[in-house]
Amino acid sequence: MNRQPHAWRAALVGGAWLLVTTAACRNDAPAPVETRAPASEAHMVARSGLAMGSSLTLMAWTSADDPANRAFDAVFAEFNRLDALMSVWKPGSDIVRLNEAAGQHPVPVSRETTEALTAARQASEWTGGKFDVTFGALSDVWKFDQDQDDSIPSAAAIAARIGLIDYRKLQFDEQAGTAYLARKGMRVHLGGIGKGLAVDHAVSLLREAGLKNFSIQAGGDLYVAGKHGDRSWRLGIADPRAPDGAVFARVELEDSTFSTSGDYERFFLKDGVRYHHIIDPSTGQPARLSRSVTILSKRALLADGLSTGVFLLGPEKGMALIEQLPDVEGVIVGADNQVHVSSGLQGKLEIVHEPTPGT
To answer: CB–CB of 116/124 below 8 Å?
Structure first.
């Protein structure tokens, strides 16, 4: 079995290109060792844990540990609160109730869930329906969540559900605070956008706490604010086929989101074919045009949805979309292993080496 669950998609890079690797984010990894500096001297305060089913790592460059740690507590609490609203696994969540009432009646949903659904609708429109949160109709046919069993569903099983995927039949009323799935059997799954919303909320919480230089990494969604010490934050893009989690490209950023979707985070190999969790809603099969997509923007919610949508569109259509959107940049590794870089990153992105070939 060639499974690589929860492999990191975007690595945070410190002062000397030191990478936060997969090992640092495993559920059984030891907590970071606290190093105390003089109270007046700025230093790094860090916290790692599990939230929304993946690793959450917080870092702040500050001279005051206690306010930073209180802010970190608030961020973990906010992730848990949003997960309770948007999870497909937690009984009573907005999404569970929405799915249970499909084809029957609207259900009340929180302001936060409406915010995520609104952003999802925008991403669907931009990508011509390639990004579609109603792909949840296939989520128990292709099992890549907590239930991953490395099975390939039959064509009949896919055909029975694919007609239930249509974002236009997901209706929501922001004023009334309700949402409705128009057909019985439809299901929403916010796995492609929910963490982005949580990261945006975390940014607000850390700024409200007075922190100016910090990073938030939730799975493949990352935001960096201000600087890392006396320089910009350095970020690396994971090589989709490197066995050791190496990066193939690096970039320096401030006050920006960095979101990566790849076919190497949740996958299995069978008979020389890679099956992964990013499903094309038009075919019901794992998308085959890209290996990874990294989106840079000001909002994590936007970047999260776009990284998945552009992955599904593929390099040609995906890069055309990136170039049309203001304040959005991107890096695409195509199925042919070729690297495509948006115009705004030309001269800023350092290609360390060509991505590793392989299946």
So the answer is: no
Domain contains 357 = no
Q: Which domain holds residue 111?
A: 86-181
Residue 28 lies in a domain: no
pTM metric for this prediction: 0.88
Residue 123 lies in a domain: yes
Q: Which amino acid is at 96?
A: V
Query: Which among 206, 165, 181, 233 has a CA at the least distance from the CA of 11?
Result: 233
Q: Indicate the burial class of 127 (C-beta count within 10 angstroms; 0-12, 13-18, 19 or more).
A: buried
What six digits make up the tokens of 274? 């890679």
Burial class (CB in 10 A: 0-12, 13-18, 19+), 8: buried
On whether the CB atoms of residues 195 and 296 are closer than 8 A, the answer is: no
Q: Please say if the pLDDT value at position 255 is more than 70.
A: yes
CATH number of the domain encompassing residue 140: 1.10.3980.10
Read off the pLDDT of residues 14-62 as tens digits, 9 standing for 90 and up: 322 223 322 233 333 333 333 344 445 899 999 999 999 899 999 999 9
Instruction: Tell me whether residue 148 is in a domain.
Output: yes
Q: How many structural domains does the chain have?
A: 1
CB-based contacts of 149: which residues, under 8 Å, 6+ apart? 143
